[in-house]
Amino acid sequence: MNNDNRVIIFDTTLRDGEQSPGASMTRDEKLRIAKQLEKMRVDVIEAGFAIASPGDFESVKAIAEAVTESRVCSLSRALDADIDRAGEALINAAMGRIHTFIATSPIHMKYKLQMEPDQVVEQAVKAVTRARNLIDDVEFSLEDASRSELDFMCRIIEKVIDAGARTINIPDTVGYAVPGEFAHTISQLIQRVPNADKAIFSVHCHNDLGLAVANSLAAVGAGARQVECTINGLGERAGNASLEEIVMAIRTRKDSLGVETNIDTTQIVPASRLVSSVTGFPVQPNKAIVGANAFAHESGIHQDGVLKHRETYEIMTAQDVGWNTNRMVLGKLSGRAAFRSRLEELGTTFSSDLELNNAFSRFKELADKKHEIFDEDLVALVSDTRASANSEQFKLSSLSVTSQTGETPKANIVMQVGDEEKSAEATGGGPVDAAFKAIESIAESGASLQIYSVNAVTEGTDSQGEVTVRLEKGGRIVNGLGADTDIIIASAKAYIHALNMLDANVQKAHPQV
Ligand code: KIV
Ligand code: ZN
Question: What is the pLDDT of residue 222?
């Protein structure tokens, strides 16, 4: 296959994915995910929106410095300050890209931008020209393209390509497109824009109607050669097109689609797990490719067929996407060097000896309780250790819970609040409820609990439980994480982590507002 048949995979988990309520990630978490994406051979990593906050700027900069095999990109509105900030964050990138955008639909131009179409064209050209003065790889997006007029899109695209944009992205920002119509738009743009051959056409589809992957693949059929997507389909509202589904559809149906990607598909499941563990967003069991049931054959007829000839019911193997790497990696007698090296293979590096030592002593505690330690345990353990280390205001000192048939569950908690030690007792409908009430009686956050979920990290009753607690206060949503073989303790840790995140009160700009 020649280059015309290569689809560029542009991952925006760290930018659009992070716009999902409660999915905010720290710089170190983003770095871990970026290293995993690089290992998976993602072509372009959208590392963030540099002007959104000082934290976002630092994350884009750190990723641009650490990643050398993938191109690192920062989003920027079509504004001078945004573009300059993106350029600054990418200054040390081995391969960098500025991605600038402006809305082009009548409804966005009239109500959101309050600009005339000619002014929008002028601002877009100015933005691309400014970005090209900072970097040689510039992408331009027509926000809300699927509700924009074709003639206007042709006009603006021709001008921004003349100004130096080398990728033209056609987003279905509100998830409104349907496959046939979207494919028609892409082929019309490629045919009608006179200088279309000087740019790669890209698509960026949201999943509001559950059509993000279908629309992206239809666009590829019509000539798009970059797809923007996210791990686990994370993203604003209903999410973005899911990377694993796009990549595996392209690979499995090469006969029909006639294109390929450069992705190392065996890194897909580890990437999915990492993103789920960092964000606290569990993957639904029946999710294609990365769900726990995606390769499980329950019915006797299916099992029989697969045993006789795998392809009777399987169109790809679990190994192709990185399942079954699930093996016992470390045990009670493993040393620090083995621990560090396995985590490095999983994409985690420690920023200091103290951090390594903390994680290693947690590992030893876990190995005492759990006979076999799997990769999944290590990933959960590191997320948990980092969540506790970031707990500035509230820290769990001890927790005891009594739960007995016929008795009301009761929790006694001791917590460090700043420099003070505080204790509380509470009863509840169950042991977790009692523990949360005891914590809340100390913290008095007034936050409301939106999601409480527990996931077993591995098989067996000695598995660590990984808990997500989502709290909401004054419109801000945060996800707290905790992992422990005792799920009540994991739950308390997750609640306290969420309280600390609320306390940190990070404010950042949203690109589309
Ligand atoms: O959905 C969208 O339109 C976006 C753009 C900023 C590319 O995320
Ligand atoms: Zn988007």
Answer: 98
Ligand 1, residue 12: give the atom nearest the CA: 8
Contact in structure between 496 and 512 (CB atoms under 8 Å)? no
Ligand 1 centroid, distance to 500 Cα (angstroms): 30
CATH of 8-20+97-279, one of 3.40.50.300, 3.40.50.150, 3.80.30.20, 3.20.20.70: 3.20.20.70
At residue 212, the pLDDT reads 98
Ligand nearest to the CA of 174: 1
The whole-number pLDDT of residue 424 equals: 97
The answer on pLDDT for 93 being more than 50 is yes
Tokens 């970005």 correspond to what residue?
131
The predicted-structure confidence for 152-211, as pLDDT tens digits, reads as follows 999 999 999 999 999 999 999 999 999 999 999 999 999 999 999 999 999 999 999 999
- Give the pLDDT of residue 2: 46
| pLDDT in the model for residue 6 | 98
Ligand 1: residue of 10, 141, 172, 215 to mutate (most ligand atoms within 8 A of CB) is: 141
Which residue spans within 331-432 are E strands per DSSP?
373-374, 394-402, 410-417, 420-427
Question: Residue 252 corresponds to which tokens in the numbers above?
Answer: 């499995």
Determine the Cα–Cα distance for residues 28 and 36; give it in Å rounded to an integer.
Answer: 13
Q: Which ligand is nearest to the CA of 104?
A: 1
The three-class DSSP label of residue 6 is strand
Provide residues with CB under 6 Å of ligand 1. 16, 101, 141, 143, 169, 171, 173, 204, 206, 511
156 CA to centre of ligand 1 in angstroms: 17
**Cβ atoms of residues 415 and 426 within 8 Å:** no
- Residue spans of the domains in the chain: they are 8-20+97-279, 294-324, 327-387, 390-504
Q: Lowest-pLDDT range, 128-142, 349-363, 373-387?
A: 373-387
390-504: CATH number: 3.30.160.270
**Rounded to an integer, what distance in angstroms lies between the CA atom of residue 196 and that of residue 190?**
6
Average pLDDT in the chain: 92
